[in-house]
């Protein structure tokens, strides 16, 4: 039973990997559509400090549509492997099946990218001016690493670094936890002499939050969900809580066992939803139950993957009264 | 893809099995409460765990030497010791000692699961009883263990009652204490009728040749004490240099297995002996006259050479990580092979040598990293899993050299 080694990568991850390598984003969409959210913000496209938006938020609508499609395939007798395999194959012969799905299925609305708009606004109000590379923003390639495509990741890492350097970037402020960890740690490990400073939104905001006098428009009982990559990989556990606690009107509650470094994964870790879509959904439902068990009316987190998973989980348990918001949205609402 | 497809089907069947979810949610809740209070009562455990990590790092680097040293010590204690390079070597040694048509009582051992020891002995015409209650249930169900310290973790009491009713021909209630009493009754006479008792070991001191056996039920004491022969099968990664080191490893192991202290820790260094009549040393007083220890390599010395994957050998098998894995919480040991969850992927690849099987388990890990937070050895399972995926997908030949024959 000899297998060509590459064949062991599950089709879902292979598809994402291929998109990163050929289209510079995980979904395989045109780069311009990802940059749409910023078109009215007139952010400078060249700056020493740039805001790194990442694939997850920029293509949130497309990802949600595609993942719900794969999930229903996975539940059926067809399984997720076949369509993912076909999508890769068709792409090779020039048919972009993923693109067709996206057009038909995508409910992409401006609110999908609202966390990005709000994050930039929050930074600006706190006196941090950032640029945004728009179509020139490279894909960090993190999922290549998790897919086991080590050589491809290393090559991509080099391209990412060269691109950022050629555009004069010295400092990156990330918002997607996985992109931030990838740029800070994984890319740095592949590039000798790596000299780009990478910080996460919560680090920058929590330093300045005391002077901001934040007040939420109403009284709200919220629970914070720690994304794995933010809490366990980047070690940013207290920072988001410090921000939330500084907002008047917000009561922060926590699940009994599963918060901070003990937080439960939403089920989307490392591209899991592309390999086990249905199981991933079951895990999302379990996590939603832990979070709503606190009696919170709002789940706040800061990861496009977690947001997508938790929304799907809430829908499954019919918790229509509970909302999922990005931390950046909450802070913007409180300004 | 065929291997992956079958495996995924199994995983999804488990995920849709509400009994598994129910049994595990109860187990996770009680594990977390127990370990919290055990660690509160003995807060020195954290620092001791750091010390044990150093002990293990050092020991894994010199497994070969420690195995030699332990063999010499055991022989000096009038036991017999062997080093088995492969599972086949181990089975041959055991066959030579056991023969055919014997009655064997066995303590729970993951290392014996690794080489399908019970099935092998039965095929050779022996009658084998698993004496750990969970393992006994698994044996009678014709199933396989789903957790390393609690093998029947996925079986609720209702199913145990049904099983034991079938065995005894009586209708038994779901009252747990009467189910336990039934197992006690069924197994009691076997210990004294048995020709051979078998066990593994949680940790072994190389300087004195002492096996540490941690348990709560008392079945290991009986299995290794009553029959005339005791055979122990031990993975080479269980060796540490000194008796003092082994004590620390044992304490950290049971503490993270959620116990303040287990009911029993047996220390076995040689056969039973007496000098009470005229100071003439005579073997086989009340315990076994023969004591055999087999140290099994089965890829471990090769694994120890890998800079990232060698972490798998630091594992104390406390089982703590499994209670923190979100996938394990809905699938139990279906996520894995002989060993489970993310760290189980490393063992699956090493032990089966099957790239597809190893990959299937490796891609079931979320790489969420909560297992690492729990682990007393701070084993970085996400790092190992990503490394393993890269090894298995690369065509550089590294994956192949990592395999067993």
Which key features would you list for this structure?
heterodimer; A: 335 residues; alpha/beta; Rossmann fold; 4-stranded parallel β-sheet; 3-stranded parallel β-sheet; 17 helices; 7 strands; globular; B: 405 residues; 2 domains; 6-stranded parallel β-sheet; 4-stranded mixed β-sheet; 52% helix
Protein architecture, described:
The complex is a heterodimer of chains A (335) and B (405). Chain A is of the alpha/beta class and 335 residues long. Chain A has a domain of 121 residues: 3-Layer(aba) Sandwich (Rossmann fold), CATH 3.40.50. Chain A is 51% helix and 11% strand. Chain A contains 17 helices and 7 strands. Chain A has a 4-stranded parallel sheet with strand order 5-4-6-7, sandwiched between helices. In chain A, strand 2, helix 10 and strand 3 form a beta-alpha-beta unit. In chain A, helix 4 crosses helix 6 and helix 9 crosses helix 10. Chain A is globular, with a radius of gyration of 19 Å. The mean pLDDT of chain A is 89. By secondary structure, chain B is an alpha/beta fold. Chain B has 2 domains: 137 residues, no CATH class; 251 residues, NagB/RpiA/CoA transferase-like (Rossmann fold). Chain B contains 20 helices and 12 strands. In chain B, the strands form 3 sheets. Chain B has a 6-stranded parallel sheet, with helices on both faces. Chain B has a 4-stranded mixed sheet with strand order 8-5-6-9, with helices on both faces. In chain B, strands 10-11 form a two-stranded antiparallel ribbon. In chain B, a hairpin with a 7-residue loop joins strand 10 and strand 11. The two termini of chain B are 22 Å apart. In chain B, 54% of the residues are buried. At the A-B interface, helix 8, helix 12 and helix 15 of A face helix 1, helix 15, helix 17, helix 18 and helix 19 of B.
